[in-house]
């Protein structure tokens, strides 16, 4: 029997654990708090992050991370991007030699500007072929409810991607394989930043023209960065690019979009952060993504303005004006 460990019991980690379990894999979730692990074990529900969703009987939970990963064929990482390094270091010595490490995380590490797969390979001391990425229009609650969705399983080892594809293919979840890990990761990371900008536009009362413009130009700057880093430009027109971007910028279930909406309505960043139970990855990753772009001399004007709002005190209104007043150029 195939076995998987999911490190992280937020909404997406739990939902993907449910997908694996529904596809026939035995799954153990790692929860930092024993009381949440006990609730999952005893009630078969994650009452904190996915209340009302029944979890399969072949999905359990523990607060012992090392125990969770022992014997696991797949180790799924579903923790915030900026805590990945510390969380993975905690279990690196307990990983099975042949396990595939799977990132659900959409961000870029502050300071190093490394993508999540690069952090995983470094901390676990494994080859890139042992690291896979899941990315696509995957709003957790919809998937947990069994609504049809598709995703991309990316790994430089195509056979490994196909193994994971088989392990998470259900009647409601359709995975496609791809070997372009760089493109899939950047699509997932940058879309959070664009969703913050789109949410701000929504919060300020702007309509669909404004939001469509931000989404389209956001896709353009994502692709520019991806191509500079060696990604296949076609990746950005697929599920891990356009698909994920549209879902995240359009849905009220998106944490980054709703965070941006509150900024656009005039709420203070500190107050929103204090009231949020889950991480809006774009708030922190926007800075590291901009650092990565500057390192490779890539122009990312939307990302630059989102950084100015989230970290430099600019107002969302000034963000829109700055973007609209940029020098005219060809598309």
Q: So, the CATH homologous superfamily of the largest domain? A: NAD(P)-binding Rossmann-like Domain
Number of domains: 2
Binned strand content: 5-15%
Q: How many helical elements?
A: 15
Q: How would you sum up the global shape?
A: globular
Number-wise, the strands total 8
Mean pLDDT: 96
Say what oligomer this is.
Answer: single chain
CATH fold annotation of the largest domain: Rossmann fold
Q: What strand order characterises the main sheet?
A: 3-2-1-4-5-6-7-8
The rounded distance between the terminal residues' Cα atoms is 52 Å
CATH architect. name of the largest domain = 3-Layer(aba) Sandwich
Please write the string of helix (H) and strand (E) elements.
Answer: EHEHEHEHEHEHEHEHHHHHHHH
Overview of this protein structure:
- With 331 residues, this protein is of the alpha/beta class.
- It has two domains: 3-179, 3-Layer(aba) Sandwich (Rossmann fold); 182-324, N-(1-d-carboxylethyl)-l-norvaline Dehydrogenase, domain 2 (Orthogonal Bundle), CATH 1.10.1040.
- The chain is built from 15 helices and eight strands.
- It has helices spanning 11-22, 34-43, 65-69, 84-91, 116-124, 140-144, 158-167, 181-203, 208-228, 239-250, 255-264, 269-275, 281-295, 301-311, 316-324; strands at residues 3-7, 26-30, 59-62, 74-77, 100-103, 131-135, 149-154, 173-178.
- It has an eight-stranded mixed beta sheet with strand order 3-2-1-4-5-6-7-8, with helices on both faces.
- Helix 14 (301-311) runs antiparallel to helix 15 (316-324).
């Amino acid at each position: 029997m195939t076995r998987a460990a999911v490190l992280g019991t937020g909404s997406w980690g739990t939902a993907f654990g449910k997908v694996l379990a529904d596809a026939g894999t035995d799954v153990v979730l790692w929860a930092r708090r024993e009381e949440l692990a006990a609730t999952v074990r005893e009630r078969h529900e994650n009452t904190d992050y996915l209340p009302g969703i029944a979890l399969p009987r072949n999905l359990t939970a523990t607060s012992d991370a090392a125990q969770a990963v022992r014997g696991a064929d797949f180790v799924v990482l579903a923790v915030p991007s900026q805590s990945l390094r510390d969380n993975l270091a905690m279990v690196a010595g307990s990983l099975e030699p042949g396990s595939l490490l799977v990132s659900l995380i959409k961000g870029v590490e502050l300071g190093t500007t490394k993508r999540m797969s690069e952090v995983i390979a470094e901390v676990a001391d494994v080859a890139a072929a042992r690291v896979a990425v899941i990315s696509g229009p995957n709003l957790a609650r919809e998937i947990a409810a069994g609504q049809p969705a598709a995703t991309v399983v990316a790994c430089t080892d195509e056979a490994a991607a196909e193994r994971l594809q088989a392990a998470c293919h259900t009647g409601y979840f359709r995975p496609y394989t791809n070997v372009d890990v760089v493109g899939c990761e950047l699509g997932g990371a940058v879309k959070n930043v664009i969703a913050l900008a789109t949410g701000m536009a929504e919060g300020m009362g702007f309509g669909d023209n404004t939001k469509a413009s931000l989404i389209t130009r956001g896709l353009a700057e994502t692709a520019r960065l991806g191509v500079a880093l060696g990604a296949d430009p076609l990746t950005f027109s697929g599920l891990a690019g356009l698909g994920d971007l549209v879902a995240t910028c359009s849905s009220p279930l998106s944490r980054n979009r709703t965070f941006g909406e509150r900024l656009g309505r005039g709420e203070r960043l500190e107050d929103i952060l204090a009231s949020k139970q889950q991480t809006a990855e774009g708030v922190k990753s926007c800075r590291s993504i901009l650092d990565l772009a500057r390192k490779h001399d890539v122009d990312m004007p939307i990302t630059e303005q989102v950084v100015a709002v989230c970290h430099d005190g600019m107002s969302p209104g000034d963000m829109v004006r700055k973007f609209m007043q940029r020098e005219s150029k060809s598309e």
